[in-house]
Design goal:
The complex is a heterodimer of chains A (436) and B (526).
Chain A (H helix, E strand, L loop, with lengths): L1 H5 L4 H13 L3 H7 L11 E7 L7 H20 L7 E7 L5 H14 L4 E4 L3 H13 L4 E3 L12 E3 L8 H9 L8 E7 L2 H16 L7 E6 L7 H11 L4 E6 L5 H10 L9 E3 L4 H4 L11 E4 L8 H17 L11 H20 L4 H8 L3 E3 L5 E3 L12 E5 L5 E6 L28
Parallel strand pairs in A: 1-2, 1-3, 3-4, 4-5, 6-7, 6-8, 8-9, 9-10
Antiparallel strand pairs in A: 10-13, 11-12, 13-14
Chain B lengths: L3 H12 L6 H7 L2 H12 L4 H11 L3 E3 L6 E4 L5 E3 L5 E2 L7 E2 L4 H15 L5 H14 L5 H10 L3 H15 L5 H11 L5 H7 L11 H50 L7 H22 L7 H23 L8 H23 L15 E5 L2 E4 H22 L2 H11 L1 H6 L4 H23 L11 H14 L4 H22 L1 H18 L14
Antiparallel strand pairs in B: 1-2, 1-5, 2-3, 3-4, 6-7
Helix pairs in contact in B: 2-4, 3-5, 5-6, 6-8, 7-8, 8-9, 9-11, 10-11, 11-15, 11-18, 11-19, 11-20, 12-13, 12-14, 12-18, 13-18, 15-16, 15-18, 16-18, 19-20, 20-21
The chains are: A alpha/beta (436), B mainly alpha (526).
Pfam family, one (chain B): BPD_transp_2
Organism (chain B): Aquitalea aquatica
Protein name (chain B): Urea ABC transporter permease subunit UrtB
């Protein structure tokens, strides 16, 4: 299994490996092949790792992050690169295989000697690479909302912590505006992110006076595709009072889940489903009409109206067209793509500030760096906790597969990676410490 | 801000420039109160209010850049301030529309439903009643009661009666409450149970007769729900069973009859699913009008493609490995990897989108608690059809006779002139073709990606081994049994634990009975 996945013949991986193979001997051949722009010689470039699953169950979500990373890198290179050097992406495919993430990370750090890596989606993949980054003192930018409970000096978290996504979403569902939900069905994929998030949410709901009998938790394996029973259970549970479903389903299981919701006629006005891992990209493969009104909580939506966002989308599509990506003019953007983009730009800024790509110096320079993000807010990297200050937005699915924002915070919120709803967290330091 | 809005309104009223029109009232309402306002208007709908609601619903209301004004976009696309009707310069495309969220959406639904109650079309009246019933707006009671007098259709009348009874549960008159409980006791809607629960409780209900009736009604509803629950479990069990059967049926032929451990079987399913993807795309670009029929066209295509691939595999590779199960296993596993990789190169590593034709979307609502999705029903019917054809092919055709002869005694069949080589090839093609058909069906319920087959191969072997090698009846029993047991375990144990338990059970079962549920009688080959 592992062996087979290592040399997945995806374009990204192909690019990276061909480049390495040809670098020494024949740059001309490579340029003629037209796969990448003319590569500079090793000494003149700064290598940047891109570690996202391009096949397997997570490919639905992660492939676009790889594209976004390449776009952001090209954009920085077009402006002259960093410290007078061009950035050179090294794309690898860990194929939704968690141990393979660690292997690929080790390869990026020890063989390719990348200065920084942008990668991972699921928390299980992040947990898998974390020891590698801490051991080899690498630098990882993680672009996806997650469960918190982690603050590594080798990682910058540009996605949301629970207080920047999950908790505001549940507060919204409980508000009059959000339908005053009284019962909660917590449905997730069976791994660390959904389980921890639901633990936090359960504690939060308790603090709001929701009793255990009004909370139901259920998990399915990765790649699960038969949601008949679960949707039936949701219906039954919903008979007991105004119910909301909180979905932490990850990857391509979302497609059969939402199809089943539509087919069994569970409407958002009766039982709204709020998802933390479903964005514009995941909805591409589904007929969104039966799903109108189901919600997602993120820190960015493609439908947000502001000049930075429209320029970002237009530039990205133009780049994709130039690169010959399929359906380039219909490509969507989503929250983790925005977080990837923000992360790369902040890193480039920090390298310029530090004057070196040395991990310690860059980490120091990252503190307090600001970036005008496509969400319409100027985001700031917290000086202490390695997390971004982010605005929270709640969107409802529209028939065209986009979200309309129904609620948002006025200003960005500081992340609380150590959730106060988990006992013992109040004693944890607010600065990153290596995990043992 | 919150304070400012009412102040602004007051100021406008005071200045006497304009009275607060319904439009302004709706536009300036606090987002949390907007749904309530629309609900209030449902029974007092008039021209200006309808226009205001329509403007909100159609997304023609925008908040101004500073957030203090609400702008209306007219039919000509021009913006004007809702407070004074003054034109405002600006581009609607760069402004945020006033959000229409779920609570507003359900209020809107009820708002429209109130006027649909008198619609000449029967189905429209019924869905209107359904919408009003869910909105639980006590102000609607007089309207529902007056419609009840005028309504001719008995089913619509009954629906009106149920809807008004729901509202009458809150009536101060005990007799009316009692009457309402009696009406609702027959309903199998789980939501009714929630409504009745407080009436059965002595803390919230003073009248003893009402309490007794409500307790009885809740018990009745629970009993009927139990029946529907069982029906639901049975249905999803059969549905999962038929999916397993589709996946395993081809294997029952290649493994069960020919004895080839075909690890590439899953890839035949995958190729079948990709065949429907290709046919879908062809229909989309050439015959978009007949799109709904693409699935029917995909069936023969999928069968033909996998039939040919299966025969080619048999002729080129498997033929040379008969009687060497280990080598066959490795060779077919290698083929499976090659097929996966080939599909990755052709179609990309990501899942592809295969749309459900409109006749497979939605479901058959039996009761509010039980809906049978059309795609699941279609798969059950489809698997029955495929099963029948396979049975006919094996039992009523010359090829079937040969296949059975070769299965039972290869040498004897050979010596009486059965072309065993050709029979092997055709049978392998048939098994692969059936897997291709299964792939078309699987494309309708799950994701289509290069690894689709990997998810089914283990299940398929499980079904065939459990059912007994060489028997169609065994495969059917094995598939249905696994499906139903899985669905009985899943609600209480969860999907993960349920699956583990089933695997454990099969291991124990095979220990006890290695030949499976149904053993082939007679002189079976080694």
């Amino acid at each position: 299994m592992t062996q087979r996945n290592i040399h997945t013949n995806h374009q990204g991986n192909l690019m990276a490996s061909t480049r390495r193979m040809f670098l020494k001997s024949a740059p001309l051949v490579l340029a003629a092949a037209g796969l990448v722009s003319m590569p500079a010689f090793a000494a003149d470039t700064i290598k940047v790792g891109v570690l996202h699953s391009l096949s397997g169950t997570m490919a639905i979500s992660e492939t676009s992050l790889k594209d976004m990373a390449l776009f952001a890198i090209d954009q920085i290179n077009a402006k002259g690169g960093v410290l007078g050097k061009k950035l050179e992406p090294v794309v690898v495919d860990p194929a939704s295989n968690w141990p393979l993430f660690a292997e690929k990370a080790r390869q990026l750090l020890s063989k390719d000697k990348v200065a920084v890596t942008f990668g991972c989606w699921t928390s299980v993949s992040r947990k898998s690479v974390l020891p590698v980054y801490e051991e080899l003192n690498g630098l990882l930018f993680y672009p996806v909302q997650y469960e918190g409970e982690e603050m590594s000096p080798n990682v910058f978290y540009t996605g949301a912590a629970p207080n920047q996504q999950a908790i505001p979403a549940v507060e919204y569902l409980m508000s009059k505006e959000g339908g005053s939900a009284k019962r909660f069905f917590l449905l997730g994929t069976d791994y660390v992110y959904p389980r921890t998030t639901n633990k936090i949410l359960r504690a939060f709901l308790h603090s709001k006076g929701v009793k255990d009998e009004d909370i139901q938790e259920m998990y399915t394996p990765f790649g699960h595709s038969d949601y008949q029973t679960i949707v039936g259970n949701i219906k039954k549970f919903a008979a007991g009072g105004k119910t909301a479903v909180i979905s932490t389903i990850n990857g391509d299981s979302n497609v059969p889940f939402y199809k089943e919701l539509g087919n069994q006629g569970l409407k958002a006005t009766d039982v709204p489903v709020v998802a933390f891992s479903v964005g514009e990209e995941e909805l591409k493969g589904i007929d969104a009409k039966p799903l109108v009104g189901h919600l997602a909580a993120w820190n960015y939506f493609m439908s947000v109206k502001n000049p930075v966002n429209s320029k970002w989308i237009a530039d990205y599509r133009a780049w994709a067209k130039k690169k010959g990506l399929a359906n380039a003019d219909k490509l969507v953007t989503n929250d983790p793509m925005e977080a990837t983009y923000v992360g790369i730009n902040m890193w480039a800024e920090a390298v310029k500030k530090a004057g070196t790509t040395d991990v310690a110096a860059v980490t120091k320079a990252m503190a307090g760096i600001k970036f005008a993000a496509p969400s319409g807010f100027t985001l700031e990297m917290d000086p202490k906790n390695h997390h971004l200050h982010k605005p929270v937005m709640i969107g409802e699915i529209q028939s065209n597969g986009q979200f309309s924002v129904v609620w948002k915070t006025k200003t960005p919120i500081r992340a609380q990676p150590w959730s106060p709803f988990i006992p013992g967290n109040d004693k944890k330091p607010d600065t990153p410490v290596k995990s043992k | 801000m919150q304070l400012f809005k009412p102040l602004l309104l007051l100021l406008l009223l005071y200045s006497g420039l304009v009275a607060a029109s319904p439009l302004a009232e709706l536009a300036h309402a606090d987002p949390a109160d907007r749904a309530g306002l629309i609900t209030q208007w449902t029974v007092q709908a008039d021209g200006p209010r309808r226009q205001a609601v329509a403007a909100l619903e159609e997304g023609r209301l925008f908040s101004s850049t500073d957030g203090n004004h609400v702008l209306l976009q007219g039919v000509d696309g021009k913006l004007s301030d809702v407070d004074n009707g003054q034109p405002v310069a600006g581009d609607a495309a760069s402004l945020d529309t006033l959000p229409v969220n779920n609570s507003v959406r359900s209020a809107l639904e009820a708002f429209h439903a109130a006027s649909d109650l008198a619609d000449p079309e029967r189905s429209k009246r019924l869905s209107a009643i359904q919408a009003l019933q869910d909105s639980a707006n006590p102000g609607l009671l007089p309207l529902l009661l007056s419609r009840q007098q005028q309504e001719q259709d008995s089913q619509v009348k009954q629906a009106l009666l149920v809807a008004s009874s729901r509202l009458q549960l809150a009536s101060p008159d005990a007799a009316q409450r009692l009457q309402a409980i009696h009406t609702l006791a027959d309903s199998a809607d789980p939501a009714t149970q929630t409504l009745l629960a407080p009436l059965a409780d002595s803390a919230s209900e003073s009248d003893a007769r009402v309490r007794a009736a409500a307790t009885q009604a809740v018990a009745d509803i629970k009993a009927s729900q139990w029946r529907y629950n069982m029906l639901g479990y049975a249905f999803s069990g059969i549905s999962l069973g038929s999916v397993l059967l589709l996946a395993a049926l081809g294997l029952a032929i290649t493994y069960g009859l020919l004895g080839v451990i075909n690890m590439a079987h899953g890839e035949m399913l995958m190729i079948g699913a990709y065949a429907s993807y290709v046919v879908q795309n062809l229909f989309r670009s050439w015959w978009p009008g007949a799109f709904d029929a693409y699935l029917l066209a995909a069936l023969p295509v999928a069968f033909a493609v996998t039939f040919v691939i299966g025969m080619a595999l048999e002729r080129l590779i498997i033929r040379h490995l008969y009687g060497r199960p280990l080598e066959t296993l490795l060779a077919t596993w290698g083929i499976s990897l090659m097929l996966i990789q080939a599909v990755r190169m052709l179609f990309g590593a990501q899942n592809v989108e295969v749309a459900n034709p409109s006749w497979l979307s939605g479901g058959w609502v039996i009761t509010p608690a039980l809906t049978l999705p059309y795609n699941r029903l279609a798969i059950i019917a489809f698997v029955a059809g495929v099963l029948l054809l396979t049975w006919l092919a094996l039992n009523k055709t010359r090829l079937g006779l040969f296949v059975r002869a070769v299965t039972q005694n290869r040498r004897m069949a050979d010596s009486v002139g059965v072309p065993t080589g050709k029979v092997d090839m055709l049978a392998f093609g048939l098994g692969s073709g059936i897997a291709g058909l299964g792939g078309v069906a699987l494309s309708q319920i799950g994701n289509v990606g290069p690894e689709l087959g990997q998810g089914y191969i283990v299940d398929s072997f499980m079904v065939v081994v459990l059912g007994g090698v060489g028997q169609l009846a065994g495969t059917v029993t094995g598939a249905m049994g696994l499906g139903i047991v899985n669905k009985i375990l899943e609600p209480s144990l969860g999907a993960v634990l349920g699956k583990i338990l089933i695997l454990g059970f099969i291991i124990l079962f095979i220990q006890k009975r290695p030949q499976g549920l149904f053993a082939l009688k007679g002189r079976v080959l080694d």
